[in-house]
Amino acid sequence: MLSIGEFSKICGVTTRALRHYDDIGLIKPKHISKENGYRFYDVAQIRQLLFITRLKGYDFSLEEIREIIAINDKNYTLEKILIKQEYIKTQIKQYEDIQNRIMGDISNLKRGIDIMAFINDIEVKLVDTKPQNILYSRQRMGIDDYAKYIGKLFSIAHTNGMEIIAGPIAMYYDKEFDPTNNDTAVALPVSEVNEFTQVLPGGLCATAVCKGPYSNLSNVYAKLMEWISENGYRVVSAPYEQYIKGPMQVKSADEFVTDIYFPVEKM
3-state DSSP call for residue 262? Predict the structure, then answer.
């Protein structure tokens, strides 16, 4: 048997962490002395603790690790690690994008160019949009829920033989941003008019295109608001985004294309 100190030293895990793992049922001592409460571990538990440490290194939460240990199935473990691998790939890509932006900003600053100067290159147009028949669903949702609700609209369209004629739309009704709980509507433009559809009114809109990942959207929103203010217009209803190219059409977020519309009127 190994004392908690010896077990800690061999496995490179603090005794504080071992006590926490015991408390949450992740790995429990083989024996606890009734006289003084000292914890003792079996040599056979070394591999189990190293397995826990390895999964932590893959960015699994302790709850996820506990579930993997409880199920104790190699196929289940493989499935979870494959999912985590895809998540890590996404994180790596995000950090690569950040690195590229940093390098661009450093280059511009060295040449005396303001970091935010790229916003000046975003083109804003004034367009007169036409009314559209849409499948429409509005509720409070988080950003990660968009695909789910848009998927439901695709299912309704497919079941009822409705022709989808343009990319999905998201409309935002809240006055402030909350990525986990927004009053949001999603819609699909369709050719049919029936009990499932309603009309997205047409009218005057200030519009601009966002190219690249959705993290760029706020830059385009900023440019649109500047343009609207500088040109004597005001926003009259909820802005909306139309996804021209997204995850279903292209593999890389760098290829995303999103049209943004702000319904406006002259002040």
Answer: strand
Q: Which residues share a beta bridge with 206?
A: 126, 262
Q: Which two tokens stand for residue 44?
A: 């056979």
User: What amino acid occupies position 227?
Assistant: W
Q: Which CATH number fits domain 125-266: 3.30.70.20, 3.40.50.720, 3.30.1340.30, 3.20.80.10?
A: 3.20.80.10
C-beta of residue 135 within 8 angstroms of C-beta of residue 197:
yes
pLDDT tens-digit series, residues 201-241: 999 999 999 998 888 899 999 999 999 999 999 999 999 99
Q: Tens digit of pLDDT for each residue in 63-97?
A: 999 999 999 999 999 999 999 999 999 899 889 98
Rounded Cα–Cα distance for residues 136 and 259 (Å): 18
User: 147 near 246, Cβ under 8 Å?
Assistant: no
pTM over cut 0.90: no
Asked, colleague to colleague, whether 2-72 and 125-266 share their fold, the answer is no
